[in-house]
Design goal:
GO terms for molecular function: hydrolase activity. Keywords: Hydrolase. Residues 43-136 form the Peptidase M20 dimerisation domain. This is Amidohydrolase. By secondary structure, the chain is of the alpha+beta class. The protein folds into two domains: 14-38 and 156-260, 3-Layer(aba) Sandwich (Aminopeptidase); 39-154, 2-Layer Sandwich (Alpha-Beta Plaits). Helices cover 37% and strands 28% of the residues. It is built from nine helices and twelve strands. It has helices at residues 6-9, 63-74, 76-81, 119-140, 161-175, 194-199, 213-222, 225-228, 244-260, and strands at residues 16-25, 29-31, 34-37, 39-48, 52-53, 88-97, 103-104, 107-116, 147-154, 157-159, 180-182, 203-211. It has a four-stranded mixed β-sheet with strand order 1-12-2-11. The longest helix is centred in the middle third of the chain and has 22 residues, at 119-140. It is elongated, with a radius of gyration of 23 Å. The model has no long low-confidence stretch (mean pLDDT 97).
């Protein structure tokens, strides 16, 4: 939509509002100022070696060994390069190298995922990843420079304080204090803010629960919420119809009327 010229097709919105159902107790709504969802970056890294027969490793630059060194070294980015308490995630989700036990292939492919709440931290982490990968390739005698392909990139979701407080106040007035709470930032990512960012429009993004209240309370009492309540993208994530749909619908109406009602 943005590439198609949305910013020039419609008037600039005064405010942008969004919500998402997640796996806490149905009937409750959570909202917070500032970072609420992390910036997200996926990276495809190709490491180049020199192939050889498995019985002749001395003739190779083994990309499997190189990939293993890179994965281990990347674990130091968050633990040793960021101040304690600074949030960041660096996950190596996939390693693909070779297809036969007796063949040393000539390349390896790593798929990484990075999450951050601060754009300066994001820049530092991405630069550190590239520095470490290039350094390990040089140490291994790699015959070519590694390649980096960035994809599935999501912006930081940074809730505007004024808009958030206005919506929070309207939701508390509608539901009462008990059903609306100040949520904590989540490590998931979302592309919603691309549109208000393009317009320079302030926004807020909140969540509401979809888990069966009885099951959630049982899991909470046993300390097993993370184990027993399926999260978004799980094949078992199945919000209960009531009161989830009613809460979600009311949230949108209440938030919109906080700006539209006379």
């Amino acid at each position: 939509m943005l590439h198609d010229g949305l910013v020039n097709r419609i008037p600039r919105p005064d405010v942008a509002l969004a919500q998402h159902v997640i796996n806490y107790e149905s009937g409750y709504t959570g909202i917070n100022e500032g970072p609420t969802l992390s910036a997200g970056d996926s990276i495809k890294i190709t490491l180049w070696g020199r192939g050889s027969h498995g019985s002749m490793p001395h003739n190779s630059v083994d990309p499997a060994v190189l990939a293993a060194s890179v994965v281990l070294r990347l674990q130091s980015v968050v633990s040793r390069e960021l101040a304690p308490g600074t949030f960041a995630v660096v996950t190596v989700g996939s390693i693909q190298v070779g297809s036969k036990s007796n063949i040393i292939t000539d390349h390896a492919t790593l798929l990484l995922n990075v999450r951050t709440y601060d754009l300066d931290v994001r820049a530092h982490v991405l630069a550190a990843i590239e520095r470490i990968v290039r350094g390990e390739c040089q140490a291994a005698g790699s015959p070519a420079e590694p390649t980096f392909e960035y994809y599935d990139q999501f912006p930081l979701t940074l809730n505007d304080p004024t808009v958030t407080e206005h919506v929070h106040s309207a939701l508390r007035e509608h539901y009462g204090e008990q059903l609306v709470f100040t949520s904590k930032p989540a490590t998931a990512s979302e592309d919603f803010s691309n549109i208000p960012n393009a317009f320079g429009t302030p926004y807020t993004y909140w969540t509401f629960g979809g888990a069966d209240p009885y099951s959630y309370q049982q899991a909470l009492a046993s300390g097993r919420v993370a184990l027993d309540i399926p999260a978004n993208h799980s094949p078992y994530f199945a919000p209960v119809m009531d009161p989830t749909i009613g809460t979600g619908t009311s949230n949108v109406v209440v938030a919109a009327c906080a700006y539209l009602a006379k």
